[in-house]
Design a protein that fits this description.
Layout (H helix, E strand, L loop, with lengths): L4 H13 L2 H7 L4 H15 L4 E3 L4 E3 L1 H28 L5 E6 L1 H6 L1 H11 L4 E6 L2 H9 L5 E5 L6 E9 L1 E6 L12 H4 L6 E2 L4 H10 L10 E2 L2 H9 L5 E4 L11 E5 L7 E8 L6 H15 L1
Parallel strand pairs: 3-4, 3-5, 8-9
Antiparallel strand pairs: 1-2, 5-12, 6-12, 7-10, 7-11
Helix pairs in contact: 1-2, 1-4, 2-3, 6-11
């Protein structure tokens, strides 16, 4: 059975007007073309839908059943098209983002504020999580995009947003605190403290140091807030990327640039290969890119 939406409209027009000429005019068809269309519908259905007389056209009992179904199908189609238009014009929808905690804290508040102002009816979900979990969420389809850092991203479509510089964070009485810049070799020492090996910061440093396994010297902690408190107590120093520096805005703490040009943490926007982003997600990507460039 091959009945189009135009066929349904023609059937409903005849059912309402009960007159071939008026129904044909409503459908912008000649009367002969309209009559042929109705005959094709009946042939496809295998049953007469209308009783025809010289004055009046009425529905058969089977036509009465079909007219209710045709109206429902027409209304469903209209609702579907309206929903599609709402999605296309970003009146409704959902977008989910997984982001490194530092990115979530430094970039995403401004990004989400601008996005909501432009798209007030789109639901935004933000997951601040470490790189591995963010990529797992992307892989499982729980988020549209992941803003992450790391090297093993071949399975995703990626866009580098920024190459982050690193900084030595220390107390103001540390011998290196007054330097304009330091090398990574100068920063390393027995008082060097580190984040856990699951963090992208630690993994990137290990690559630069040529260390792939095993703990480095010094204390090792899970959270940047803990690391900041330890540095503030004079218990050691650390090397962290630029987006994490807000954790170290404390009295007596200093951030000294590490000048090694190869020491950079790439901040990457990742998405699934071969899967198109929704219009809502595309708009979020534009906001994230604008934030990274600003």
């Amino acid at each position: 059975m091959n009945i189009s939406t135009r066929d349904l409209e023609a059937f409903l027009a005849l059912a309402q007007t009960q007159h071939f000429t008026r129904a044909a005019e409503r459908c912008h068809l000649s009367q002969s073309a309209f009559s042929q269309k109705i005959s094709r519908i009946e042939a496809a259905a295998g049953v007469r839908l209308f009783e025809r007389s010289t004055r009046l056209v009425t529905l058969t009992p089977e036509g009465e059943v079909f007219v209710e179904e045709a109206r429902r199908i027409r209304n469903d189609m209209r609702q579907a098209l309206t929903g599609l238009q709402d999605l296309a014009q970003r009146r409704v929808g959902r977008v989910a983002v997984a982001a490194l905690p530092s990115v979530a804290a430094e970039w995403m508040p401004s990004v989400i504020a601008r996005y909501r102002a432009a798209n007030p009816r789109i639901k935004v979900e933000l997951f601040d999580t470490l790189a591995a979990n963010g990529l797992s969420m992307l892989r499982d389809g729980r988020v549209d995009i992941a803003i992450t850092a790391g090297e093993e991203l071949q399975e995703f479509d990626c866009q580098v947003l920024r190459q982050e510089k690193y900084f030595l964070v220390c107390r103001d009485d540390h011998p290196l605190a007054s330097r304009r810049s330091v090398t990574l070799a100068q920063a390393m020492g027995p008082d060097m403290m580190h984040l856990a090996r699951t963090s992208s910061v630690r993994q990137n440093l290990q690559v630069q140091l040529g260390v792939s396994e095993g703990p480095l010297d010094g204390l090792e902690v899970e959270h940047l807030a803990t690391l900041s408190a330890l540095v503030a107590q004079g218990l050691g120093v650390s090397v962290v990327p630029e987006l994490t520096l807000f954790h170290f805005r404390r009295d007596r703490l200093r951030a000294v640039p590490v000048r090694d040009p190869q020491l950079r943490r790439p901040i990457v926007l990742a998405r699934l290969k071969g899967k198109a982003l929704s219009i809502a997600a595309q708009a979020m990507v534009l906001e994230v890119v604008a934030q990274a460039r600003g």
